[in-house]
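Changelog-linked ticket: manganese (II) ion example.
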Amino acid sequence: MAWRTQLFKQTFACLENDKSPLGVVGIPMDYTGSYKPGSRFAPQRIRDSACNIELYSLFTGIFLEDIGFKDYGDVILPPGDIEGSLEKIKLVMRNIIEEHSGLLLVLGGEHLITYPVVEVIKDKIDELVIFDAHLDARSEYLGSKLNHATFLRRLLDEGVNVIHIGSRAYSRDEYEYVSSRDNIKVINVLEAFKNIKLEDLGRVYISIDMDVFDPSIAPGVSNPEPFGLSHYVLLSILRELFEKSTSVIGVDVVEVNPLVDVNGETSVLAAKLLIEVSGLYLAKKSFK
Ligand code: MN
Ligand code: MN
């Protein structure tokens, strides 16, 4: 299957640059969501938000308008077909990872999209860093083994090393499972509010479930969970992550749900977050 024909062309931030080190791909999948569907509309809405804000990274002082983005488009998925969609995502991601040498920004979709992405890159990373209110590590959910609430269990079973930040909602089953594993370090939301210092990390992929934020600042998510992180805490942890890792290969932003958002606040927060992440990536590159 020719992989490029599996993508629907889009332009992140209305600023295309084929040579940009900042790659973008959208994965508009949301059919294992158990509460509020709608995250399939997030890639387009996040792009639209990015077109309507300044492309300036406050934390690094970098103007991204000089750099632009190489947007691969949205993966075209077979509706309702979970296995078929995961295969399609893997096919496209394998090829993009091979072609693109810079940072890859992945726009979800539900959190299950992180599973096929990490499957493709797991030999290229030392650590998967997840920001999420939830562990997503149930053995199964409502009779299904592969969905947004179980994907991390699958990756942990496969031996992927995980740092999990910002959690505050657990089922007993997943809490006990996670506590028994030595390939996951959980920094819950109370610990995350203290000034986190991380040890040196190798190559990293970061996954941001937008419900890690407090619902008062990110209302448009499928599974809102009170007592969440503030932007500044999350950004300072991101800065620490970029500082301590040898490289960051990609960052996904998942679970934005435009259908339950308020005034597009969550989409614009996701866009802004990606601009700061891009700034952190470029700043780190220029130091080396
Ligand atoms: Mn999640
Ligand atoms: Mn979550």
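Closing comment: Example verified and attached. The two ends are 38 Å apart (CA to CA). Helices lie at 42-51, 82-99, 114-121, 151-157, 172-180, 189-192, 231-244, 265-287.
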